[in-house]
Design goal:
With about 375 residues, this protein is of the alpha/beta class. It contains 14 helices and 15 strands. A hairpin with a 2-residue loop joins β7 and β8. The two termini are about 30 Å apart. Bound molecules: iron/sulfur cluster. Iron/sulfur cluster binds near residues 11, 18, 22, 61 and 117.
Amino acid sequence: MSGIYIHIPFCKQACHYCDFHFSTNMGKKEAMVLALIKELELRKEEFKDEMVETIYFGGGTPSVLSTAEIDQIIGAVYSNYTVVSAPEITLEANPDDLSKEKILELANSPINRLSIGIQSFFEEDLKMMNRAHNAQEAETCIALAQVYFDNISIDLIYGIPGMTNERWISNIEKALAFGVPHISSYALTVEPKTALKTFIDKGLVPPVDDALAEAHFHILVQKLSVAGFINYEISNFGKPGYFSRNNTAYWQGKKYLGIGPSAHSYDGIRRGWNINNNAKYIKAIAQNELPMETEVLSKTDRYNEYIMTGLRTIWGVSLERIKTEFGQKFYTYLTQQAQKKIEDGLLYIENDRLLVSKKGKFLSDGIAADLFLVNLS
Ligand code: SF4
């Protein structure tokens, strides 16, 4: 089973914290859709033996596409690949795009899961982050979407400067009141070359406070667990039956094809990444060239990746898999490195799986990094 990720590199305006690849100039939207379709055709051989289980429109803002454009792209997937009978087809959407008409159109398209970029239900947070939607739109779009879609995820951001615990709790409670079955939630991070970084450097915005983010994370985990959500990956919470099939496949190391500028691909051995420039991407594809660079992952790279993604999920790291796939040397290294963290209560072993404890959860990336190795073959 494998997945296809399609990157839609357009946004109406730039959120201050964002370092994803996108353009606010929609002038190339039509040419981009044609290029995405052509890339799907050009790469079909890579997936000739694969069943496509998930199709994921990410971005950027995929909801800036018309439903006809989305249908054309999905049509190209079906004409060039073998798709399972009940695939998960997700569209990331922003609240300001989700009018009643648009939701109705999407409900009549093959899209069967919406991932809505709410981020916050409060005007001051949305303005501070320069989101394109307002607080009212955040609420109305969920209510409208729920009329036609059952499988809805919303994104929420915590640790925003100025966001009190009370406001964060209120955000979580609003999400719970809607009864959405999946929530993805991330700490606001300050990436280089973003407007947020500049504002903080100039003293216009207070710096992001790690202690605040950690407090918000613990509130989130506690409240969502009481509400019946499973924290199946550090930033993802789903009711049973609503875990993202796309993301789960990715964390479990399955193959995926990344279509579009800046999209990444993985075939079990090699990682590839497309050029992150819309004009150059369209030009290369028009000349039947794939604007992609690749690297073959070494055994050490694959081990490090498995440790990183495994420790972020409830499935943890299978010690049996470490032994069989990577060998005794890796197994010995891992169990020795993990010992101190087990003694400190940050990790534990259950059913031959290495897992992060409740205490270690917020620190899981740092814990994983301590278990990495630089070169062992
Ligand atoms: S809408 Fe999403 S991709 Fe676009 S700028 Fe905002 S955070 Fe980045």
